[in-house]
Structures are given as C-alpha cells and as structure tokens.
Design brief:
The complex is a heterodimer. Chain A is built from 17 helices and two strands. By secondary structure, chain A is mainly α. The longest helix of chain B has 31 residues, at 149-179. The chains are: A mainly alpha, B mainly alpha.
Chain lengths: 593, 255
C-alpha cells in the first residue's frame, strides 16, 4: 500500500493530473471521455462509408445497367454487389452499432454517471480503441487487394468463406483480411468489456447502489457482459475458419465439394458448426447493438416527461432478462439450415419468450410517457422514434420466430426489413437521441433544436419509407442478395416498390446532411450550454460541461437517491439530482413545508 | 440524518457480494490466495454473507471512495485488478468452451477422418509440472503474506521456471507428434490438439512473462500483494484449464 501511494505521483496520467501536450491529450489519451469521442468519430466515419455502400446497392437494384462511380469498370457485377452487401453489413454491425452506443457513448458517460474519475483500466481502454481502429483499417483494406472485398456476407458462412479464391473474387486475400479484422475487433471489444464491467462493479460513488444506477448504466453493464461472452466465442470460431483457409484443416468443410469444376480434397467438416459458433455470438450481438439504446431511451423519456421511469426495478430486471435470454436463442437464425425440427421448436419458444421482457420495456416506456409533462425537444423525438421502430421491428420478429413462416420468408427482403428496423434504425435512433441529449455535456454547446427536429422528421419518415415497403417485397417473394431482380417476371413486378425504396433511401441519406451540418456548426457556434441544461437528475450533470480531466472538480459526488426523481411531490423544483444532500432538498427554495 | 435506505434482500446480497471485494466475504481472493493486508476487525467478526454491508455514513452497498478501504479518490482501488482478472478469466473460459464444444461437435459427426490421438507420454510430465507450479505459486504467495520475502521471491522464480519447463515439454510433445507424421491438417483430431495446446500455451507464455516481469521489476501502480494475487489467480486458472483439456484429450485417446 505504501509503495503504491509513493509511486502514484511518478506514474504518468494518473486520474489527478491532466496529460499535457497535443498528442497525449487528443491522440494517445487515456481519458475515457477522449476515448469515447475517438470511438464516436470512428463510428461517424464508418457509418458514412456504410451508407454510401448501401446507396450504391439501392441504386443498382433499380437501375442495374447504369454506370456507377466508385465501381471498378463502371458497371456493377453480381460479385461486386455481394462485396457491397458484405462490407455494408460488417461495417455497420461492428463499427457502428457495436461501437457507437457502447464503446463511444458508454465510454464517455458510464464513469460520469456512476461518479468515477475514469474507467478502471485507462490504458487498457486506450488499447481497445486502437485495436478497433486497426480492425477498421484492415477491413477497409479488403477493398484494395486483388479480387476486392469478400462476398460471403457479414456472417461469412463456409464453405464459401473457408476456401480461398477459387470460390469467387474477394474470397482470397479479401476474406482473410476480413477474418483478421474481426479477430482484432474481438480482442478490442473484450478488453473494453472487461473495463466496463470492472468499472461498474468497483468504481461506483458512495451511495450509488445497484438500484440507484441510471438505466443507461444497467444497459451498458449488461451489454458489456454480452460482449465479453459473445466475442470470445466469435474469436474461437474465427481462428478455426482462418485455419481452414490458410492451414489446410477441415473444421467447417463438408466432403465432396466441387468448386469451379474441381473436387475439393478436404472434407468431413461441418458448415453448420460455424453457423452455431457464429450465431452464438451473432444473436447476442443484436442485443449489444440495441440494449444500450434501450437504456438511453429510458433515461431520456423520463427526463422529457418530467416523471420517474415507470417500473424502474422491472426495467433493470428486463434488461438482465433480455441479456440472459439473448444467449439461448441463436438457433432462430438457422431454421433453414437443416437443423433438427425439434431444435427449431425449442429455439422458437425461447425466441417468443424474449417478447415478454421486450413488451415489459415497451409498456413501461409508454407508462413513463403517460400523464407526463412531455417536452418535445429533439432528443425526446428520437427517443419516441426509437420506441416506434422497436415495436414495428419487434412485431415482425414474432412472425419470423415461427420456423414454418421463417422457412418461407428467410431468404426474402422481409428478413432484411425486420432486422434493419429493429437492429439498425431503432439502434441508430437511440444513438441520435443520446447524441442530441448529451451534446451539451460533451462539447459545452447546444445543438440547434429546429434543425434537429427537421432531421428527426425527415429521418423518421424516410426510414419507414425505406423499410415498410420492403416487408411487402419480401412477402411477395422478393429474394434478398440478388444483384438484379429484373430478370424474373414476378420479381420485375416488384420494381416500382424498389424504386420507391431507393428514392426514400436517398432522401433519408440526404437528411443526415442536416445532422452533420447541425453537429459541426454547433460544435463551433452553438449556444453555450449550462452544466445541466435539461434539468436532469443524474451525476453526469453534476459537473461542468464539458467535464474536466478526472470528471469532478473538487468534491466528488455522493449519491442520496434513485436516479429519476422528477416531479417529487413537495419538492421545490421538479427534479431532485442524485447528489443533492437530503438536508438541502427543501432548503434551496428557502421554505419548508 | 441519513435518508432511510431500503434493506437489501438476502439473495441480492449473496449474489452481489461475490463481486465486491470490499464486502465482508472476499470470494476467491483472501480465502483462496491469502492476503498480506490484515482483515479489519469488523470483517473478522462479521464473516457471514448476511452481515451488514454498509460501513456507516450514507454509503451504499459497495461504494468506491468511502468504501471499506477508504482510499485516495484519485487512484483505482486495488480490488479492481482482482475484479478485472476474474472478468478476463470469464472471457478466456468462454473462448476455450467454444473450442471444446467445436471439438465435441466435429468428433460427434462420426466421420472417418477423425483419428483419435494417443497423447505423447511427455504430456503427463507437463501436466505434473503445471500442477506443481500451482503449488509453488501458492506457497510463494503464502511467504509474501507472512513477510518471508526472500522465500517468496525464490518460489516465485521457481514457478516461472516451471512455467517455462511446461512450455518446453509441450513443444517436445509437438515434435514427437510431428515426427510421427501427425501434422496440423492430418486429421481434425490433430488440428484440435494443436489449436488447443497452442491457445493454452500462448496463455501460459503470457503468464510466464508476467511472472518474470515481477521478478525483475517492481510494479508502480499496484502493491506487490495485489500484483502477485492477480497473477496467481490467472496461473491457477490456467492450471485447472490445462488439467481439464488434458483429461478430455487423454480420455479420447485412451478409448
């Protein structure tokens, strides 16, 4: 103990002293807030690339013979289309939906909300960011190698992904780079998860009991546990897949494969084994994307309804239940894989059972809104939008959870519509809500509310415009992953719907320019924000905007009450911050009851 | 006046006490590995889980700064390193569980390409060495706790040497298999043997590096007690992990 206190001042970047110098402050920073921002901007870049890829695909679907920019040769081949599918999915799932809500916003706000000066392991935190950045660069580099990006989808099913380039362009070096990128990403996420969990367990402020943690903290905590258990499994699977590709093993390759006229000599493996390993990760991954959004939306709905979260304990419990159940139902991604129908039945029941905690959350969000003094500011609009998309996407999930119906719909756009709405759009709405909500805290300035509302309505209408018709395309048998659906008659009949969706996609993408404009202009010229501009109760508002190094200047906060004490009867104001001592509760207005 | 707090349910306390090293029950740290920090009197008397967790003031179940250890607010309390290691072990366990379940599935396919491996005899010796190293590291920790520093350092070094011996032995086993014509891609069973031993060996290599680093270098962020405790935890885990993998492979080869 003595040696620790003696050595502490000598060690660089302790929590007490802010690091000096541009490089150590902005690039090789160990401050969780700077790392959170680094993750945030990484996600912004990744989402921009991902959206551009999706626009290219949407354009090609409607005008398959048109020449496109950014495409080698100008005219898109089916293989190039599949490469775009793969890279769009991988970038969005790993570098946007995993990175933004958890690694970026969680990193920034988890220590603040529990009253800690930083993450438990700041240098590990820095390492996980740099690994994630490396993974991102490696993944992008797959575009630039001979053969281009892989074409086996973000799920990388073998045998296509398990054999080298004879299976198609992009399946050579491109696919190996993809797997390597995912492995690096796994390590980064595991280190991040260790940090999140240890911080939540050990660094809570005095008085911050588990049942006083904001629901955001609950969500990040459970998400970190999911990351910890899921990414470890993906890492193991990726090693085996890489060995199949590079070392001649046969974990996943079935016997008797004939590829491009050649008989593959290896065999005896099981492609289904990869699917199990992958989806054991892949399904929790869906919750890694959406659960932080659930937490952030609960947080924001309470604030802008000026009411406590309805059923706080049940909400926390529902997050845990969703996290637990999320590990038991990966098989519903595999109903058409030839799995035993009895397994399908079990997975189907488990899938349906997750509707219970999901419905609990939805009704409690509505209960939070009910009778509240609702303020429709931008974060609130996006939070309500999240609820809307979560319900819409969740309902189509109930249909897909039936093996019989899924067999019909699995390869169609119905599934694309389902997971884009519930995992993509809903999660993105959660991220937008949180970004608008915490922007004043992160940058000390406010965003423009009018532009924010414009952004919301355009995105809300646009996203439904893209994905609602997609359900009907799927029900009509529109096959996903086809680069060109004008060839078959029944598919050609769906082209008008496709055209509408493509126009909606371009409008929605254009609406994001409003967000970028609002974001970057407000960064420089926004109205200065006070420490607590939303009159909120949690600890991140008990410190200056933006918070100093070490998070709380002077006295560290203590916690005296539950996180969402809005409109407490008899209180002088309609919110009681968690750190306000009980004695001063009523003294502030100078009157006693 | 303190605000009234709702009492915590026993089941909650049972569950969450396992996370908090500041709480009366120190799972896996004090009891398993020993501690040089003397137990506080209140801890000694309230050795049950149901004992009040709160230590006065208006602190919650396991507050950080005013916690039982009452630490400098600008430094991480030592228990985060123990917590962090426990969490990391969870991830490592999942990683190996995935590999072993893949082993079970691939073997269960019943294809003829699966040829059970008869383990080289040196693997038995390696297993013995690793188990012995668990004992030496535990004894080394004990010597640190009772302030017999030279002995502590001696047995710490012995553990590192045993770790290196284990790795050498594993490489020998690899050489014997290679000499017998069993390569990575020869059979799925040999693939799994190499993957499992390599993955475990890399973890051991990391452990050896940590062991050596601590013999050459005094940790600047944590006390020697915490550092040795974290490393010992990791080392015991890898030992138990190897015994399990070994048992699985041996059972398979002996059938």
């Amino acid at each position: 103990m003595n040696s620790a206190s003696r050595a502490a001042p000598a060690a660089r970047d302790t929590w007490a002293e802010a690091p000096q110098g541009l490089l150590r402050r902005y690039v090789f920073s160990t401050d969780h807030k700077m790392i959170g921002l680094q993750y945030f901007f990484l996600a912004l870049i990744a989402v921009t690339v991902g959206v551009v890829l999706s626009l290219l695909m949407r354009f090609h679907l409607v005008w398959p013979s048109a020449h496109l920019p950014l495409i080698t040769g100008g005219l898109m081949t089916p293989e190039q289309y599949l490469a775009l599918v793969t890279m769009h999915g991988s970038l969005m799932v790993f570098f946007v939906l995993t990175t933004a809500p958890q690694s970026a916003l969680g990193n920034y706000f988890l220590p603040l909300q529990i009253g800690a000066p930083d993450m438990a392991f700041p240098r590990l935190n820095m390492l996980s960011f740099w690994l994630t950045l490396l993974a991102f660069l490696v993944m992008l580099s797959a575009f630039c190698v001979p053969g281009g990006a892989p074409i086996s989808g973000w799920t990388a099913y073998p045998p296509l992904s398990g054999i080298t380039d004879i299976t198609g362009p992009g399946e050579g070096l491109g696919q190996s780079l993809w797997i390597f990128s995912i492995m690096v990403f796994c390590v980064g996420s595991l280190l991040g998860a260790i940090n999140f969990i240890a911080t939540t367990i050990d660094l809570r402020a005095p008085g911050m009991t588990l049942m006083r943690m904001p629901l955001t903290v609950w969500a990040w905590f459970v998400t970190a546990i999911l990351s910890l258990l899921a990414f470890a499994v993906l890492f193991a699977g990726a090693i085996l897949l890489l060995l199949d590709r590079l070392a001649g093993t046969s974990f996943f390759l079935p016997a008797g494969l004939v590829i491009s006229g050649e008989l593959e000599t290896r065999g005896g493996g099981s492609p289904l084994l990869w699917q199990h390993l992958f989806w054991f990760f892949g399904h929790p991954e869906v919750y890694i994307a959406i659960v932080p959004g659930m937490g952030m939306v609960s947080h924001i709905l309470a604030n802008f309804s000026r009411k406590p979260v309805f059923g706080y304990r049940v909400m926390a419990l529902a997050i845990c239940a969703i996290g637990f159940l999320g590990f038991t139902l990966w098989g519903h991604h595999m109903f058409v894989s030839g799995m035993s129908p009895y397994s399908s039945l079990a997975f189907s029941f488990l899938t349906l059972s997750i509707g219970v905690p999901s419905a609990v959350k939805t009704f409690n969000w509505l209960g939070t809104l009910w009778g509240g003094r609702i303020q429709f500011q931008t974060p609130m609009l996006f939070a309500i939008g999240f609820v809307s998309f979560f319900v819409t996407g969740g309902l189509s999930g109930i249909f897909l959870a039936q093996p019989a119906i899924d067999t019909e719909l699995h390869a169609t756009y119905y599934v694309v519509a389902h997971f884009h709405i519930v995992m993509g759009v809903a999660a993105i709405f959660g991220i937008f809500a949180a970004t608008y909500y915490w922007f004043p805290k992160m940058f000390g300035r406010k965003t423009n509310d009018l532009l924010g509302k414009l952004h919301f309505w355009l995105t809300f209408a646009g996203a439904y415009g893209i994905f609602m018709p997609m359900h009907f395309v799927g029900l009509a048998g529109g096959v996903r992953r086809y680069a060109d659906s004008t060839g078959a008659k029944y598919l050609a009949a769906l082209q008008p719907l496709h055209r509408f969706m493509t126009i909606a996609a371009f409008v929605t993408a254009a609406a994001q320019l409003v967000f970028f404009y609002n974001f970057f202009v407000s960064l420089k010229k926004g109205r200065p924000a006070s420490d607590n501009p939303w009159n909120a109760t949690t600890l991140e508002w008990a410190t200056p905007s933006p918070p100093p190094h070490g998070n709380f200047s002077g006295e560290f906060p203590k916690v005296y009450r539950a996180p969402y004490e809005y409109s407490v009867p008899g209180a002088p104001r309609d919110f009681l911050p968690q750190h306000l001592p009980p004695e001063s509760e009523f003294a502030e207005s100078g009157s006693t009851s | 006046m303190r605000p009234a707090r709702k009492p915590i349910a026993f089941s909650q306390r049972l569950f969450f006490a396992s996370f908090s090293n500041g709480a009366p029950v120190r799972w896996g740290s004090t009891h398993l590995l020993g501690s040089s920090e003397p137990l506080r009197p209140s801890l000694r008397t309230s050795g049950t889980i149901a004992a009040p967790v709160k230590q006065g003031g208006d602190r919650g179940a396991s507050g950080f700064f005013g916690g039982p250890e009452g630490r400098n607010r600008r430094e991480a309390p030592p228990r985060v390193y123990i917590t962090g290691m426990f969490i990391a072990l969870g991830a490592i366990l999942m990683f190996f569980a995935a590999l072993v379940s893949a082993w079970v599935v691939r073997r269960g396919l019943g294809n003829t390409d699966w040829q059970p491996i008869v383990l080289p005899r040196v693997v038995w010796l390696n297993t013995l060495i690793l188990v012995a190293s668990s004992l030496t590291i535990a004894y080394s920790r004990h010597c640190l706790v009772v302030n017999r520093d030279p002995e502590h350092r001696h047995w710490w070094g012995v553990t590192a040497i045993l770790g290196m011996l284990f790795l050498t032995g594993q490489l020998l086993a690899w050489r014997q298999l290679l000499a017998a014509g069993l390569f990575l891609a020869s059979s799925p069973s040999s693939s799994f043997f190499y993957v499992l031993t390599a993955a475990h060996g890399l973890h051991i290599l990391g452990g050896v590096a940590a062991l050596l680093l601590l013999t050459l270098h005094t940790p600047c962020r944590v006390t020697r007690d915490t550092a040795t405790r974290v490393i010992a935890l990791y080392w015991h885990f890898l030992g138990a992990l190897w015994v399990s993998i070994f048992a699985l492979l041996w059972w398979e080869g002996s059938k």
